[in-house]
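Quick one:
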Amino acid sequence: MRTLAAALALALLAAPAFARTRSSSKSPRAGGYCAKSAVGTTTTDSKGNALECKADKRGRARWMKK
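Output:
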């Protein structure tokens, strides 16, 4: 019973590390939302593409490829 409890405790401690993936980073990506204060600004994503923060047809600010 103790070994089962210890294994469960270790699994719960390691779970957040497995949940993080490369795609969950906070860097801007095409199609992702940007802050309304960032509209009109440009930046580059992790692949080197130029992105511009523009309003889409619904008025929401999104990163779009330049």
